[in-house]
């Protein structure tokens, strides 16, 4: 499926691009955030998200079972976790221009809600729920598979994005390295601190550096996670 130009689509055009005969009111509800409903009244997307989450999980689990016959339960669970994650769904939502259609309250609009991972992922689930109620289980399943399964080629990156520190530690061990070592520094007053983390992965004998990266954030954890993700990207891109 090709990316949709977010600047030129109406909801009807979005529905046509997605290939689903949506009930217009259901698609509109799927794209209505609670902040908008609180200010303007009417329904919001959370009940559709509930349905969509179940449809998404079931469709992906069955697809993985059929397409990965040599993988055990643990590996299938890891694949599923990555494919249905907030990171994955938000990327899919951006690819179809979903953010431009979101109905948001004024506060969410001011703070960039149209590009927030959590809002986009929730809206994507709600769209799956709206597809189910509009056109039935087969149409909803097909929509999930068309949008989500192409991400399988990126499942390692998506999994690392969910837990970059663990992913880096596992990759370091697989590549013959020591456990990652983090160094932290902070600047600024207590109410406005900024942190920089540096992570180094050395070879098992300590004779060379396999990966090194830095990250920044407003908390120690955020800085370390960014550094870990960058180091994982560096290490995963190297030849074994």
UniProtKB/TrEMBL annotation:
EC main group: hydrolase
Cofactor(s) the protein requires to work: Mg(2+)
PANTHER family attached to this UniProt entry: RIBONUCLEASE 3 (PTHR11207:SF0), RIBONUCLEASE III (PTHR11207)
Similarity field: Belongs to the ribonuclease III family.
Ligand binding (Mg(2+)): 49, 122, 125
Residue ranges of every copy of the RNase III domain listed in the record: 11-136
Alphabetical keyword list: Cytoplasm, Endonuclease, Hydrolase, Magnesium, Metal-binding, mRNA processing, Nuclease, RNA-binding, rRNA processing, rRNA-binding, tRNA processing
Catalytic machinery residues: 53, 125
Protein name stated in the entry: Ribonuclease 3
Catalytic function, reaction form: Endonucleolytic cleavage to 5'-phosphomonoester
Localization terms from the record: Cytoplasm
Binding partners and assembly: Homodimer.
Record-level Gene Ontology MF annotations: ribonuclease III activity
Boundaries of every DRBM domain copy: 163-237
Top-level taxon in the UniProt lineage: Bacteria
Species the sequence originates in: Pseudoclavibacter albus
Role summary: Digests double-stranded RNA. Involved in the processing of primary rRNA transcript to yield the immediate precursors to the large and small rRNAs (23S and 16S). Processes some mRNAs, and tRNAs when they are encoded in the rRNA operon. Processes pre-crRNA and tracrRNA of type II CRISPR loci if present in the organism.
């Amino acid at each position: 499926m090709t990316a949709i130009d977010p600047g030129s689509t109406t909801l009807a055009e979005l529905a046509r691009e997605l290939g689903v005969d949506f009930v217009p009111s259901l698609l509109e509800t799927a794209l209505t955030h609670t902040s908008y409903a609180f200010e303007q009244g009417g329904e919001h997307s959370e009940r559709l998200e509930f349905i969509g989450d179940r449809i998404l999980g079931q469709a992906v689990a069955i697809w993985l079972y059929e397409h990965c016959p040599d993988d055990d339960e643990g590996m299938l669970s890891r694949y599923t976790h990555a494919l249905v994650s907030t990171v994955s769904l938000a990327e899919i939502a951006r690819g179809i221009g979903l953010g431009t259609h979101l109905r948001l309250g004024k506060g969410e609009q001011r703070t960039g809600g149209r590009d927030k991972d959590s809002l986009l992922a929730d809206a994507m689930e709600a769209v799956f729920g709206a597809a189910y109620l509009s056109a039935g289980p087969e149409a909803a399943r097909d929509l999930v598979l068309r949008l989500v399964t192409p991400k399988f080629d990126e499942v390692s990156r998506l999994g690392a994005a969910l837990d970059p520190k663990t992913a880096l530690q596992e990759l370091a061990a697989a590549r013959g390295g020591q456990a990652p070592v983090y160094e932290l520094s902070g600047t600024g007053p207590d109410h406005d601190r900024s942190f920089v983390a540096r992570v180094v992965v050395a070879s098992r004998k300590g004779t060379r550096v396999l990966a090194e990266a830095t990250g920044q954030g407003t908390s120690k954890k955020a800085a370390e996670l960014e550094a870990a993700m960058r180091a994982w990207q560096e290490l995963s891109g190297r030849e074994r």
